Amino acid sequence: MQLSLVIPLLNEAESLNELHGWIAEVMQSNRFSYEIIFVDDGSTDASWDIIQSLSKTDTNVKGIRFLKNFGKSQALNAGFHAAQGDVIITMDADLQDNPEEIPELYQLVTKEGFDIISGWKKKRYDSVLAKNLPSKLFNWAARRTSGLKLHDFNCGLKAYRNDVVKAIDVSGDMHRYIPVLAKNAGYDKIGEKVVKHQARKYGKTKFGMSRFIVGFLDLATIWFISKFGKAPMHLFGALGVVMFFIGFAFALYLGVDKLFINKTGRLITSRPQFYISLTAMIIGTQLFLAGFLGEILIRNRKNDARYTIIDQI
Ligand code: UDP
Ligand code: MG
């Protein structure tokens, strides 16, 4: 099978038939062998009924239904597990992503050898204040921390080679950073394609302004994990040692001063250096301990793949 389309959705009943028709049209005129995997992320409207009836008339349609709303990342993860095509394409269900981009995305992955092609909604049809501006800032921060030169990390329309989606684990709210996850897993031929974008036709967005707060926190996490996730001691140990020695230097100074220079001067405990020394040494020790705890945690995570093998003889 050439293509798997993975489509996460939450309460998108109005869009599904139209989306399916549009995809089927593009697929047939390009003669693709394909599957459409609708992942119903706990919809409370008629979405699942529609997916069921679509699957009765079209054998390319498959469905996965979640017990409750677990989030877009989880939905993508489930779709990635099930996908059998050589190329996996993800898209939103709300008709904002254009299925006509699919053939070119497919070519870029199969012919040009990209691991991932990420869509870039160069001209966006979302509200300027609520989305376009914060998203510029957000993408800038993501570029800075990840080193990936993408304009639109969170675009729902992306294409992957099959082995890429099998190697990455999208959890929490990390769907915003799939290219970064892929890069950290060793897939770094990541390209970008300008894609057409439409205004939402039915329903409304499922992510409020909180996406930006959560998004930035996740960015900090992912940056940290990719840099120090395999060796937390390298960060915490270094910081801890520095802090501790700053504290120790102040203590030494106070001691020498009291014993040999200013014997009748102020009490050590009434001097500001005393408090600096005390806090710095305590923080230093804490940081060092955090490093040790991190290392212990890593060593206890036994069955968690931390590398991907591509060949074995
Ligand atoms: N979605 C989902 N689970 C959620 C939230 C959203 O599967 O918890 C789906 C949603 O139905 C849509 C896609 O993710 O197909 C993108 O969501 P939305 O269009 O609301 O995001 P926006 O375009 O506003 O960024
Ligand atoms: Mg949308």
TrEMBL record:
Positions in coiled-coil regions = none
Q: Which InterPro entries match?
A: Glyco_trans_2-like, Glycosyltransferase_2, Nucleotide-diphossugar_trans
Query: Which residue range or ranges hold the Glycosyltransferase 2-like domain?
Result: 4-167
* Membrane-spanning residues: 208-226, 233-254, 274-298
Going by the UniProt record, its keywords in alphabetical order are: Cell membrane, Glycosyltransferase, Lipopolysaccharide biosynthesis, Membrane, Transferase, Transmembrane, Transmembrane helix
Q: Does the keyword Hydrolase apply?
A: no
**Domain of life, per lineage:** Bacteria
Q: Does the keyword Transmembrane helix apply?
A: yes
Q: PANTHER family from the entry?
A: UNDECAPRENYL-PHOSPHATE 4-DEOXY-4-FORMAMIDO-L-ARABINOSE TRANSFERASE, UNDECAPRENYL-PHOSPHATE 4-DEOXY-4-FORMAMIDO-L-ARABINOSE TRANSFERASE-RELATED
Question: What's the name of the protein?
Answer: Glycosyltransferase
This protein's species is: Croceivirga thetidis
